[in-house]
Amino acid sequence: MFLCIVKGVNSVGKVVYVTAIVPFVLLLVILVQSLCLEGSLDGVLLYLKPDFSRLLHFQVWLEAALQVFYSLGPAWGGIITMASFHKFHGNCLRDAILFVSVDAVANFLCGLVVFSILGFLAREANVTIMELAESGPGLVFLVYPEALTRLPIPQLWAVMFFFMLFTVGLDSQFGMLEAVISGLTDRFPKTLRKRKTRVLLAVFVLFFLTSIIFSTQSGVYIFQLVDWYESTFCIFMTSCLECVVIGWLYGAERFSRDIQIMTGSPIPVFIRISWCIVTPLVMMLAFIAVLVNFDRPVYKGYEYPEYIDIVGILIGLVSVLPTPVIVLKRLVKQRGSLTQRLMNSIVPPGDWGPNDDRVHHTYTMYKYNMSFWQMAKVNITGRPTKPET
What we know:
By secondary structure, the chain is mainly α.
């Protein structure tokens, strides 16, 4: 990972040509081979046949939301960081649609591969596919490798499969690590930006030392614990706050006008509705549902002790606490009453604007001089008239 991103985004872009394409090629190869196995079509039919009654179960929607966050990567910071290196006049809306479409196709392809193998294993073990199916790391590191041993030339397929996992792992970490490194160097530009290679090396050493624990005999249980508490709590709240900040505090209309400067077109109304209403509402409901129905993790029948709740909550708070801490810090620095401090804290600074010098000197920030309900209408539907400045 260090060698892949030591030169920054330029080296990442070159490596991604390999790490992003290789998994698709290997998936197609493994899919063709698995479809030749007896019972594979049973798994494919189960995968493709819809069971609409499951849509009435809230847990299905919750798991689907988590899958989107894991697969697509919103609210983790990586997408925003990588997008910051985009050309100023690039078509970000087109890229977003393409990004989501490719991710959906990749997920569908992965499902075909997995269920074709599960159909084969179920036929061989004379059990139902649902009895054999397993989610999480067990599917990748236990069920699937067992299936590969039944294929002709199992060594070849095992090497291809784990090489695919390796490239997917690299690809998944690029954006996340760049978010950490860019965040540190942007926060301390005078001291860290000039020493980016050293910062990168220090971060990797820290990551390496802390990840050793996952390689121990009990590593999978610790992984389950961290994954259970860390992602469940923070991801829904973070995504909800992002939508609130963009849709209401900064303002969807102001954000749409910023995008129009870059792309030449304003944001469609349905995306505004998603920013301001649908997504934050769904994320908040999901967060509340997780809190209400939350229980201790269980892995292969092992029930974690009671004190693990305290440990898990502390793990979950690690990524959540910075938000209120920064809010309080900003409020303390402001002057005036609490209301005035709040209003001053959510207004963009005076030097805010495009990073393109040719556009920056003509940029005028849109200002909201209206009631709350008028502001809500403008954010959702847009304002065709000349903006008040």
